[in-house]
Specification:
The complex is a heterodimer of chains A (168) and B (357). Chain A is mainly α and 168 residues long. Chain A is built from 7 helices and no strands. Chain A has helices spanning 2-47, 51-61, 66-78, 83-94, 102-109, 111-114, 120-167. In chain A, helix 1 packs across helix 2 (51-61) and helix 2 (51-61) runs antiparallel to helix 3. Chain A is elongated and about 70 Å long. The longest helix of chain B is centred in the middle third of the chain and has 14 residues, at 191-204. Helix content of chain B is 25%, strand content 26%. Chain B is globular and about 60 Å long. Chain B folds into 2 domains: 30-155, Beta-Lactamase (2-Layer Sandwich), CATH 3.30.450; 163-356, Rossmann fold, CATH 3.40.50.300. Chain B has 11 helices and 17 strands. In chain B, helix 7 packs parallel to helix 8 (273-284). The chains are: A mainly alpha (168), B alpha/beta (357). At the A-B interface, helix 2 and helix 7 of A face helix 3 of B.
């Protein structure tokens, strides 16, 4: 009985902590995305670096899971896919590796719409616009994540305790 | 330091491209190359067996027009299943085909190809070039870029070797030094290919002559000679060659002289007023010049303002005239423009124009 109660509290508490950790990763992943877009913007604007080459650079510079995202994107581009479809396909394949929400992906998905299809200045403007939008999303996500993560850290254990009381 | 050779060999017979010593690559990367065309054109061209890949010179995609393959012996319209068809039944190129191909050749990075598009062509790995035409966007009198692309011309580069060895002995002066040389021909007659081979031979040296290798500086303004792709030259230009890619000739020649100490400077397609100054600059520095120009022969060259100036000043000591008479790269003759002496002439053609110059 005692062992079962401890186990239930541990499992629920652990799940709560795991969920809280995932929630905390969201703003961090958005921050990394902003860094990646800023680097991509620099490579396009100042280096006129072709996208496959820029992806290799981003793959080396970014941490998980964005390194995998750009590795996949670079591979698809080198295989001859158009930037837009390659970006969409990469999002589809890489999504499970991230903790981002559908609204975040909507903004990130917009990057692919005009990627590589205009001159450097135009690319810069588009990337900047998306960076501004993403920055707003990240700020909101940071506040939201702080509250949610705190809640789930406690809620897991509390649910565990409630379960124990219920069974007793 | 001038070039010096111990022995002059001038009795070798020059054979044309169609001769027995023709060495062509069998185009091993053909399957990879066709992917640049984008689907479905890539599939159609990959399926065709009318022309051998190594004999195809151009693949032309014009909006609303039939898909066309061009070789030195034939022009073939292709049907949707890859067989030869009449113009009416051939596969018609659509705007989407051009967009797919353009996206492919620019690696989905139109901004990175801006400068190339401004010049009207994009270079692919392997040295193949894609000519692009469409609507020019002009800003303050300068072409900014091209939009609404209406035609693409894939010009296939074939690394043909063998002629340079025969031509080179004629390009040596009596004191054994390499002569200032200009290769003349109409477009698509193989002058860039010959120039590339001469650069490689001068750079590596030729033990048969014997010719010691020398430092060659290449100003590859149009990205055609070395065909750089991501910083790697697609063509082998020799062991002692320094390549300045995408740089205007005038600045490039000065940069090379200051930085790399070349003995020979090679550049493609003289024809701008600034080129005359650049060539003079190289002469002042004691560097030998090897270049090409568009002209049907010596006489034709003298009618062109820039070339007339260069030839009038006696800068060039050898003119190599090429044509497509017996296939691309037929060497019609080699002359010394200072005294009009014909050093070599292709049999079976009157050579009055060269001799008279």
């Amino acid at each position: 009985m005692v062992f079962g109660s401890i186990l239930l509290i541990a499992v629920c508490g652990g799940s709560g902590l795991w969920l809280a950790a995932r929630i905390r990763r969201r703003p961090e992943e958005l921050r990394q995305c902003l860094t990646a877009l800023s680097l991509l913007d620099t490579e396009i604007r100042w280096g006129a670096t072709p996208l496959p080459e820029a992806c290799t650079m981003l793959q080396e510079r970014m941490d998980q899971p964005w390194d995998g995202f750009f590795a996949e994107l670079g591979t698809l581009l080198r295989q001859g896919q158009a930037a837009r479809t390659a970006w969409e396909e990469t999002i589809r394949r890489q999504r499970p590796a991230f903790c981002l929400r559908p609204d975040d992906w909507k903004v990130i998905g917009d990057v692919g719409k005009g990627l590589g299809r205009s001159d450097r200045e135009e690319q810069h403007k588009q990337l900047q616009l998306i960076q501004h939008q993403l920055e707003a999303v990240r700020t909101q996500a940071a506040v939201w994540a702080e509250k949610q993560a705190k809640m789930w850290s406690y809620l897991g254990f509390l649910l565990g305790c409630a379960g124990v009381i219920f069974f007793i | 330091m001038p070039l010096r050779y111990n022995l002059l060999v001038r009795n070798k017979e020059i054979t044309s491209l169609l001769g027995a010593d023709r060495e062509t690559n069998r185009f091993p990367e053909w399957e990879k190359f066709v992917t640049w065309l984008g689907d479905p054109v890539a599939k159609i061209v990959a399926q065709q067996n009318v022309l051998l890949p190594e004999e195809i010179e151009e693949i032309r995609l014009r909006i609303g027009q039939p898909l066309l393959l061009v070789s030195s012996r034939a022009e073939v319209f292709l049907g949707a299943e890859g067989s030869a068809r009449g113009p009416a039944e051939a596969y018609r190129i659509r705007a989407e085909d051009l967009a797919a191909s353009l996206e492919r050749i620019t690696q989905s990075s139109l901004y990175a190809a801006e400068e190339k598009l401004r010049q009207g062509f994009v270079t692919l790995p392997g040295g193949h070039r894609v000519g692009v035409v469409g609507q020019a966007v002009v800003n303050q009198g300068r072409i900014q870029t091209l939009k609404h692309v209406t035609a693409l011309n894939f010009r296939l580069a074939h690394d043909i070797r063998g002629r340079g060895k025969n031509v080179l002995p004629y390009l040596l002066l009596s004191d054994g030094t390499f002569a200032h040389t200009l290769l003349l021909s109409p477009p698509r007659s193989g002058k860039t290919t010959l120039l590339r081979e001469l650069i490689r031979l001068l750079s590596n040296g030729l033990p048969d002559l014997p010719l010691p290798g020398c430092t060659v500086g290449v100003v590859d303004e149009r990205g055609e000679l070395a065909a750089m792709w991501l910083g790697q030259p697609a063509f082998d230009l020799g062991l002692r060659t320094d390549i300045l890619d995408g740089c205007p000739k005038a600045e490039g020649i000065n940069m090379l002289i200051r930085s790399m100490g070349p003995q020979v400077i090679a550049t493609d397609e003289l024809g701008q007023p600034a080129d005359v100054t650049a060539v003079r600059e190289a002469l002042r520095a004691g560097v030998k010049v090897l270049s090409t120009a568009h002209a049907a022969g010596a006489e034709d060259a003298r009618e062109r303002p820039i070339l007339r100036q260069l030839l009038g000043e006696g800068i060039f000591q050898r003119l190599v005239v090429l044509s497509r008479r017996r296939g691309p790269g037929t060497i019609e003759g080699i002359i010394d423009p200072r005294n009009g002496q014909v050093l070599y002439r292709e049999e079976g053609r009157a050579w009055s124009s060269a001799a008279s110059s």
